[in-house]
């Protein structure tokens, strides 16, 4: 999970860098940059969903272990 979090951090920094550079670009370059940023954000969203699924699995496992201990 640490690797996934690091990938998210890296992608977020890439988006931030692209936005900061955006002011010095032509209209076509800005359009291309916008497509790249949207793609990066979609990838981030997918990674957050993956983390959510992993956390859900951990919670289910913990609940099952707690139930097993009670019995």
Fraction of residues in helix:
over 70%
Please tell me the total number of domains: 1
**Overall geometry:** rod-shaped
Number of strands: 0
**Sheet bearing the most strands, described?**
none
Low-confidence stretches: none
Calculate the mean pLDDT score and round it: 84
| SSE ordering | HH
Query: Compute the gyration radius: what is it?
Result: 19 Å
| Percent of sequence in beta strands | under 5%
**Number of contiguous helices:** 2
What gap, in angstroms, lies between the N and C termini? 31 Å
Structural class: mainly alpha
Structure description:
By secondary structure, the protein is mostly helical. The chain is built from two helices and no strands.
Keywords:
mainly alpha, single chain, 71 residues
What's the short version?
The chain is mainly alpha-helical.
How are the elements arranged and paired?
Layout: H1 2-21, H2 27-70
Helix pairs in contact: 1-2
């Amino acid at each position: 999970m640490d690797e996934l979090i690091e990938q998210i951090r890296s992608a977020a920094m890439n988006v931030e860098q692209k936005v900061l550079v955006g002011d010095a670009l032509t209209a076509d370059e800005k359009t291309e940059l916008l497509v790249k940023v949207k793609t990066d954000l979609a990838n981030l969203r997918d990674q957050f969903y993956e983390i959510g699924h992993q956390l859900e699995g951990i919670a289910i496992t913990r609940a099952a272990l707690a139930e097993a201990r009670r019995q």
